[in-house]
Structure formats: structure tokens, C-alpha cells
């Protein structure tokens, strides 16, 4: 069987899960254990499911899951604007911020997870508040003025360090030492392209899973295939819920499942 490494850009993974939750599961919150189950669903999709001519190829066996991330911000930082009636801004406690609490819990789950390597970078010691993109466009177009902004129109931007370097080094080592035959990468940008080129030169089959985000032609040409698992179905199954905003293919998917259950029962 072909040894397969599944490599996950943690920040990208969380952003895409948040996207699917906002679009299809209004009000649903996911815990760390459920996120790990989603990761395993993605892994099984790539290892077990037929993809095109995949059924004719040698079966895949998991070598290891590599998850790349940074600890979440845990500082208390003053908001950019004071509340009405106050002279100075209040403080936001990022350590208690729900997404950051979830991120820490996910890291702990992954440390206990079988066949998983957690690769942690570090955070930049400095950051700054930025205007959210939608509001910035409105400012540029003179649709709103600066004095109409509130703290909700800002986000705190800080940089992760060493994450991309660790990912690139692991790809290079796995390929150079011939430790794996296949690499599945969950990511959405071109930072990994040099390492992917090296892996392909060494004979590694390099598959990109952008989690249904569109990738440019210049990016897809540097990998051996682009395949995304069905995140909506994974969330629905693992959380035992129906989408609040069903994709157009949802009813057909439900009908196929009913037919398969009927065939197994007969």
C-alpha cells in the first residue's frame, strides 16, 4: 500500500469550517472533538474513496496526519475606539475569546490523537487593529464616514511565524527520504509550491485539497490533482443536524443515501 501523509494548514482549515458553518448551519457551534472527527472524515475520503481512476491504483495507507498552527492570541488588548460616553477604550481579553478557547482545545485533542503530529509555530510579539474589508470598501467609496465606525468594524491582525517553514521542511524531508508515496495537503495559497515541486521531482504524488475553495490555474498546475471532500455532509453527520441552508444538491444526496440503505436491507 502507498504510504500517505495528510498535511493540514490549521488556520486555513478553521477558516473554511467557519465558512461552511456560516453558509449552511446558522447558529451551530462545533467543539474540538467534532473538529477532530471532521479531520478523520477528510482523511478517510482521501484514503478510501475512489477518485476517477483511483480505484485502479494501489490502495493508500495513512503514514501520519500533520497539523500546522500557532497558539491563539492570549493577550488583553485595548479596543481601537472608546465606547460612547467613555474617554478611553475598553479592553478585549483574547484568551477568553471563544474561537481562541476552541483553538486551544483542538490542539489538546490533536496531541492525544492517533497518528498525528502537531507542528506549532509562534506568534509575532506585535499586532495592530485593522478595518474589516467590507467597511474599508465603504469608507473608500464614501458610503460611510470614520465617525460611524464601531469596534465591531475592526479586527486584530497578528502574524504567525515558522508555520510555513515547518510545512515546507516536512514536505521536503518526507519526499527526500522517501518516507511517503503520496502527500495530501489541505491549504489554499501558493506558499507550498516550491516544496511541492521538489516532492514531485522525487516521485511523490502530490494532491491538493482546497476544501472547495477555487484555486487558480497557476496553482493547480504544480500539483498532481485537486480533490475536496464534502464538508457539508461531514458537519451534518458528525453534529447530527440538517443544514439550515441546504445546498442545491442536498435532496439528491439524501435520496441516494436512502436508496443505499434500502439496497442493504433487501
Folded structure, characterized:
Strands 5-2-1-8-9-10 form a six-stranded parallel β-sheet, with helices on both faces. Strands 3-4 form a two-stranded antiparallel sheet. A two-stranded antiparallel sheet has the order 6-7. Strand 8 (182-186), helix 6 (193-201) and strand 9 (205-209) form a beta-alpha-beta unit. It is an alpha/beta fold and 266 residues long. The longest helix has 17 residues, at 32-48. The radius of gyration is 21 Å and the shape is globular. The mean pLDDT is 91. Helix 5 (163-176) packs parallel to helix 6 (193-201). The protein is built from nine helices and ten strands. The chain has helices spanning 10-24, 32-48, 98-112, 133-140, 163-176, 193-201, 217-220, 231-239, 250-265, and strands at residues 2-9, 60-69, 76-78, 91-93, 116-120, 122-131, 154-161, 182-186, 205-209, 225-226.
Task: Show the helix and strand layout.
Blueprint lengths: L1 E8 H15 L7 H17 L11 E10 L6 E3 L12 E3 L4 H15 L3 E5 L1 E10 L1 H8 L13 E8 L1 H14 L5 E5 L6 H9 L3 E5 L7 H4 L4 E2 L4 H9 L10 H16 L1
Parallel strand pairs: 1-2, 1-8, 2-5, 8-9, 9-10
Antiparallel strand pairs: 3-4, 6-7
Helix pairs in contact: 2-3, 2-8, 5-6
What attributes characterize this protein structure?
single chain; 266 residues; alpha/beta; Rossmann fold; 2 domains; 6-stranded parallel β-sheet; two-stranded antiparallel ribbon; 9 helices; globular
Let me know the average pLDDT.
Answer: 91
Class by alpha and beta content: alpha/beta
User: How much is the radius of gyration in Å?
Assistant: 21 Å
Low-confidence stretches: none
Overall domain count: 2
Residues in helices, as a percent range: 40-55%
The CATH topology of the largest domain? Rossmann fold
In what range is the share of β-strand residues?
15-25%
The arrangement of helices and strands along the chain is: EHHEEEHEEHEHEHEHEHH
State the major sheet.
6 strands, parallel
Identify the overall geometry: globular
Question: Number of helical segments?
Answer: 9
CATH homologous superfamily identity of the largest domain: 5'-nuclease
Cα(first) to Cα(last) distance is: 34 Å
**What top-tier CATH class of the largest domain fits best?**
Alpha Beta
User: How many strands?
Assistant: 10
Strand order of the largest sheet: 5-2-1-8-9-10
Amino acid at each position: 500500500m502507498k504510504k500517505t501523509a495528510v498535511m493540514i494548514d490549521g488556520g486555513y482549515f478553521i477558516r473554511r469550517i467557519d465558512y461552511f458553518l456560516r453558509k449552511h448551519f446558522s447558529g451551530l457551534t462545533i467543539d474540538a472533538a467534532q473538529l477532530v472527527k471532521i479531520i478523520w472524515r477528510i482523511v478517510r475520503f482521501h484514503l478510501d474513496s475512489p477518485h476517477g481512476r483511483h480505484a485502479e491504483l494501489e490502495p493508500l495507507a495513512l503514514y501520519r496526519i500533520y497539523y500546522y498552527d500557532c497558539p491563539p492570541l492570549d493577550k488583553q488588548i485595548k479596543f481601537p475606539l472608546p465606547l460612547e460616553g467613555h474617554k478611553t477604550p475598553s479592553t478585549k481579553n483574547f484568551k477568553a475569546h471563544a474561537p481562541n478557547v476552541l483553538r486551544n482545545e483542538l490542539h489538546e485533542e490533536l496531541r492525544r490523537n492517533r497518528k498525528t503530529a502537531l507542528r506549532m509555530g509562534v506568534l509575532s510579539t506585535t499586532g495592530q487593529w485593522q478595518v474589516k474589508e467590507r467597511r474599508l470598501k465603504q469608507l473608500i467609496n464614501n458610503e460611510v464616514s470614520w465617525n460611524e465606525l464601531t469596534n465591531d468594524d475592526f479586527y486584530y491582525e497578528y502574524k504567525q511565524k515558522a508555520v510555513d517553514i515547518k510545512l515546507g521542511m516536512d514536505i521536503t524531508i518526507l519526499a527526500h527520504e522517501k518516507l511517503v508515496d503520496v502527500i495530501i495537503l489541505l491549504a489554499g495559497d501558493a506558499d507550498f509550491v516550491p516544496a511541492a515541486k521538489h516532492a514531485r521531482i522525487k516521485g511523490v504524488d502530490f494532491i491538493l485539497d482546497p476544501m472547495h475553495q477555487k484555486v487558480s490555474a497557476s496553482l493547480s498546475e504544480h500539483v498532481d490533482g485537486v480533490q475536496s471532500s464534502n464538508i457539508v455532509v461531514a458537519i451534518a453527520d458528525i453534529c447530527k443536524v440538517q443544514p439550515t441552508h441546504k445546498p442545491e444538491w442536498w435532496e439528491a444526496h439524501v435520496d441516494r443515501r436512502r436508496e443505499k440503505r434500502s439496497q442493504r436491507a433487501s
